[in-house]
Design brief:
It is a single chain. This protein has 290 residues and is mainly β. It has one domain (2-152, 236-288): Distorted Sandwich (Beta-galactosidase, Chain A, domain 5), CATH 2.70.98.10. The chain has one helix at residues 97-102; strands at residues 2-5, 9-14, 19-25, 46-47, 58-61, 64-67, 80-84, 88-94, 107-116, 119-128, 134-136, 138-140, 143-145, 156-161, 167-172, 178-185, 191-195, 204-206, 213-217, 223-229, 233-237, 246-253, 272-274, 279-288. A hairpin with a 3-residue loop joins β7 and β8. The two termini are 28 Å apart.
Length: 290
């Protein structure tokens, strides 16, 4: 386990999946969900090269079928540590014989974690190291304890986004698929109240870059955790009917297949493309407290 620390925060990162596994403040308070398998056995997986699901775990590249499980393989693959200091670590994953069986592109995925005061910077750098155009999705899935909630007790809480207008989401299904049909998200002046029923149809997905920040509020209205991002979709999720005491705040450059999708991988909605030698850079920032 890799540990980074400053005067305000200590974080831990695993080489398996380059997964952020702990964020503790200088008072010893843990903010990141600690992966109790009774509810959900992960902390903050990286979603690559797909986000959510492809139809029947199957997708097509140039007419050939490939198979990937939900959210892809990066979260279950060991990364290499490229460099490390007290406040920063770089990890990297390259294609292999095994990845090429399920994803026919040569790539390098670099992940950087940096702590600065009460902030954690998460940076993804995707490189196309092959000779053909590459298609991919990438996303984050950090889970945070819901303030004031206990395991096994009803989930409830409040989010605040930086858009006080009417919010639009995508109709979602529990299998990870979506319909490219907008549905209204209940909010008032940027406040979104959530409970277990909020997640009855899987994650709630705001699309078309409607927001660039979301705050998870304490019961007294102060900010427990803030996420800043610049991506097409932000998703919110907690496992339905489990009374799990956490909520995931997920910045995505991608989305699941439209229900019944039969087209080529490159033509699905919210997909990224890289020419040979090109690269992609994405980032989100976690701020602890105000």
């Amino acid at each position: 386990m890799i540990e980074l620390s400053n005067e305000q925060l200590t974080i831990k990162v695993a080489e398996m999946g380059a997964e952020l596994q702990s964020i503790i403040d200088n008072k010893g308070h843990e903010y990141l969900w600690q992966a109790d398998p009774q509810y959900w056995p992960r902390h903050s997986p990286i979603l690559f090269p797909i986000v959510c699901s492809v139809e029947n775990d199957t997708y097509t590249v140039d007419g050939k079928e490939y198979h990937l499980p939900r959210h892809g393989f990066a979260r279950d693959t060991e990364f290499s540590v490229v460099s490390q200091s007290d406040k920063q670590v770089f990890l990297s994953l390259r294609d292999s014989e095994e990845t090429l069986k399920v994803y026919p592109f040569h790539f390098r995925l670099n992940v950087n974690y940096t702590i600065n005061q009460n902030r954690v910077f998460v940076v993804w750098h995707v490189e196309n190291t092959g000779k053909q155009e590459m298609h991919f999705q990438i996303g984050g899935h950090p889970a945070f304890y819901a303030p004031g909630c206990e395991a096994g007790q009803p989930l409830k809480g409040v989010l605040r986004v930086d858009n006080k207008g009417q919010l639009q989401g995508l109709k979602s299904h529990i299998d990870g698929s979506v319909e490219m049909e907008e549905i209204g998200i209940d909010s008032q002046d940027g406040l979104i109240h959530f409970d277990d029923e909020f997640f009855a149809h899987d994650s709630v997905k705001l699309h078309k870059s409607q927001t660039s920040s979301v705050e998870l509020l304490n019961p007294d209205g102060s900010v427990a955790v803030k996420l800043d991002y610049s991506c097409p979709i932000i998703a919110f999720w907690s496992p339905y009917q489990k009374n799990a005491p956490f909520i995931c705040l997920e910045p995505w450059f991608g989305v699941g297949d439209p229900r019944g999708y039969k087209g080529e991988f490159k033509d699905k909605p919210v997909i990224n493309h890289l020419l040979p030698g090109a690269s992609f850079l994405g980032q989100y920032v976690i701020t602890i407290g105000e």
